[in-house]
Amino acid sequence: ESAVSALNLGAFCYLTKPFEDMELREAVARGVDAFDHQVAREREMKERLLHVHDAFFSMLCHEFNTPMNIVLGFSDLLAASLTDPEQVAWLEEIRKSGSQLHGILMEVVDYTAASHHADTGQHSIFCPRELLTPLVANFEARSICVTVSEGCSPSRSVSGPSRAVFLIARKLVSMASHGKPSNISLCTWVDAMDDGLKALLHLEVTGTGLFPERLDPEILAELFEPYRSSSSHVSGERMALGLELATSRKIAEYSAGSIEVFPAENDELGFLAKIPVRLSHPL
Q: Maximum CA pair distance of the chain?
């Protein structure tokens, strides 16, 4: 009975006492071989599924983008010819909804890519302030004011996943922009760790205009659920906040980092990313 119970619980083999050393060695060797074979099969299956998965999303992106670009393109053309205020208002709603749908589709694609590809974790040397400054111009083109500042640590070059840092910062600021704030603050600083060379790069986004219904851990945890609407928990105009947060966290995890949400000034939602980096010399 104990043998059956053990095997049902996942044991590979069952030896009765007394047994020879060689019996144990052979059982362990067979178990290791079986494990290696299982891992290889799972890896092969995962690669095959990812190929199908990526091909499907490439097709989906193309099939959505083509008609969506037509909708947005003709909206721009019609905007120049309509004079009736009510029709102009209708057209603006069509254009706004089309842009939101396109943004959500792109976020789904980003989330899918972040879930399966770790290329954002590749390291290079960069200065955080210089890396993030171009974000200001990108958002100014959309009439969104972003201020990039530094904490108590001076600006300096570090070695780390620069692409992941830029993508995370862009997504955090983009999420903040959904709340229609007057000014978004992106603050970066570096905290040295024990050996003087290891450090944590912080990206803190405040001034979001997003207000959680409650600040308890359960609500804050639910904000990271990618396919669950959090509109009942957060006020302020927003798109797929859960999907964007989940995508940011996936990118951060590939770089051994993390994403947090926290109550900032006036109980607004704030976003904080922590990414491990290395310093060129100790602080």
A: 94
Phi-psi region of 207 (alpha: psi -120 to 50; beta: other; left: phi over 0): left
Buried b (16+ CB within 10 A) or exposed e, 39-63: eeeeeeeeeeeeeeeeeebeeeeee
CA neighbor of 204 nearest in space, from 230, 220, 184: 184
Which pTM was predicted? 0.60
User: Is omega for the bond preceding 212 within 30 degrees of 0, making it cis?
Assistant: no
Q: Tell me the HSE value of 268 on the side-chain side, using a 13 A CA sphere.
A: 21
User: What is the distance between the alpha carbons of residues 34 and 12, in angstroms, rounded to a whole number?
Assistant: 9
Amino acid at 39: V
pLDDT digit string (tens) for 55-78?
666 666 667 767 777 777 777 778
Distance (Å) of CA 249 to CA 102, 114, 215, 242, 255: 21, 9, 20, 10, 10
